[in-house]
Amino acid sequence: MPDPASKPPLTTESKVGGASLSAPIDSPDRSAGNSTDSSPSGLTSDEAEIRLKKFGPNAMPDSSAHPLRSALSKFWTPVPWMLEAAIVLELALGKYVEAAVIAALLVFNAALGFFQESRAQATLAALKSRLALNASVRRDGVWKTVPAVGLVPGDVVKLSLGAVVAADVHIVEGSVLLDQSMLTGESIPIEGGPGLDTYAGALVRRGEAVAEVTATGTRTKFGRTAELVRTAHVTSSEQKAVLTVVRNLAIFNSGVIVLLVAYAYRLTMPPAEIIPLVLTAILASIPVALPATFTVAAALGARALARLGVLPTRLSAVDEAATIDVLCADKTGTLTLNALTVTAVRPAPGFDEAALLGLAAVASADGGQDPVDAAIRAAASSKGAKLPTLIKFIPFDPAKKTSEATATDPNGGGTVRIVKGAYAAVIGIAPPVPELSVAATDLEAKGFRLLAVATGTAAAMRLAGLIALSDPPRADSAALVAEMRTLGVRTVMVTGDAPATAAIVARAVGLDGAVCPPGPIGDAVTPEQFSVFAGVLPEDKYKLVKAFQKGGHNVAMCGDGANDAPALRQAQMGIAVSTATDVAKSAAGIVLTKPGLVGIVASVKQGRMTFQRILA
């Protein structure tokens, strides 16, 4: 039977033959590229300085434009070009006052958009500064705390409880429980020990380890994600709408101009009088006030959204919200809580759920950051389980895949041994129970994290039962899917998690359509074909959004992790939830500043109200 606690590190789920296979993501090449050998005592400060100059800082390049360049860019898009052409025509006609009025509209339109977006970017910058990382690194033979941006390949770093892994690293000693959900979409943490490669952005949930930095900055495993974010681009709906109006007016006015010229020629008017007449007719096809109308309406919509806990980082995102007809939602941390909870309890004969949870809680660490132990203790508390009195606790051992406790038997007063861990490990010390073996197979097939609990004396252990854990949907996820459906927006799940796990969550939130079959996702795929796309890499999410857009859909993408960033930037409306990484928030057009998903519905409704305001 598969051992859920011995999952390979950092995997993506590939879909082959109807089953989900975990394929390890290629580990860094430690013999070339960015990896550099270092001594067990780490680098000296001089060596670190040399390598910092060679490899650069451990940070993604700032893709935000200089304020002056950002301001000037407001004058260099198709809509401003239209106004600038109108100014030239007015000057050619000698109408300097009219030219000045249009120029004032042009400047007002650009300034309003620039200041609104600058305020949003300032808010994001403040959030990032509060999340600045430090790292514990061995330099000159002693441990020092340095800004993570100063790490270099070859540095020896300490991975401690609660810390974020600041670079791609190779663990050389110790053991840790790593939460890599922000990178892979896999909600269940993995065990890491010597020989494991892990990646920047992972969170240490338990234990402590020493590791060597193998790659930093843009050379990290997920550095390619930043490149996808940089190249992602989609034409805004506002530009399309304005240019469509201009095109239609131009077509109509072209016919009018031909008639005017023909009539003027028939009246034998001199060319000096015909040319101003033609220029005036051309000028009439340019709706000079329309861009300003869009900008003012969007600014008012952005203010209304800010009061609801929604921060538009780009003013055009308010307009885009009115046009979307497909919502691509990430699973882990977006539709789900990204927090393990006890989903199912299967006690063995002679035990009930409260007794089983009480035994498991005693064999769980109290007060740590291990999400499995925290979930079990919370479930035991909610059931009112009576806990045996703890005498001795042995923390989780990655080699044995179990934790253990010695406690006072609440019934007989003697001492009992309690073991909690991976099912395969626990049935090695306690005889399996047939009905529990069937239950274990069923729960594992559904993608749950499965644990077993055994109790008794050292010489006579017996299986007390099974506990299954999963990452549950948010309380408002099903309501989001239902309300988006009433608004005419189809929701699909796009996740790096396993297909079996994704399908369970999809059904729980009301996504009852098909799961995308094994194999590459084609360019002709449509959102009507499938409700779930599982086992996808960051570039797959990006390609899926582009495929939907190619099919004529306006796409919103909602996510929280670094793996969602390229798709967030490519979508017409990228939405980062309140718990998203700073990479995701920077790529998104809208950031939810309050927990929950109600801001997504509010954005769509406010976007449509803004559009109605423009029509009025």
SSE map:
Elements: E1 11-16, E2 19-24, H1 45-55, H2 67-73, H3 78-92, H4 96-130, E3 134-139, E4 142-147, E5 156-159, E6 168-179, H5 181-184, E7 190-192, E8 197-198, E9 203-215, H6 223-231, H7 237-266, H8 271-284, H9 290-306, E10 310-312, H10 316-321, E11 326-329, H11 331-335, E12 341-347, H12 353-362, H13 371-382, E13 389-397, E14 402-408, E15 415-422, H14 423-426, H15 434-445, E16 449-457, E17 460-470, H16 477-486, E18 490-494, H17 499-509, E19 532-533, H18 538-550, E20 555-559, H19 565-570, E21 573-576, H20 582-587, E22 590-592, H21 598-615
Parallel strand pairs: 11-18, 11-20, 18-19, 20-21, 21-22
Antiparallel strand pairs: 1-2, 3-4, 3-5, 5-9, 6-7, 6-8, 6-9, 10-22, 12-17, 13-14, 14-15, 15-16, 16-17
Helix pairs in contact: 3-4, 3-8, 4-9, 7-8, 9-21, 12-13
Keywords:
about 20% strand, seven-stranded antiparallel sheet, alpha+beta, seven-stranded mixed sheet, 21 helices, about 625 residues
What proportion of the residues is helical, as a percent range? 40-55%
**Overall geometry:** elongated
Q: Kindly report the average pLDDT value.
A: 81
Q: Please give the largest β-sheet.
A: 7 strands, antiparallel
Uncertain stretches of 5 or more adjacent residues:
1-39, 127-132
* CA(first)-CA(last) distance: 65 Å
Report the radius of gyration as a whole number of Å: 30 Å
Task: Look at the helices and sheets and give the structural class.
Answer: alpha+beta
Number of strands: 22
Q: In percent, how much strand structure appears in the residues? A: 15-25%
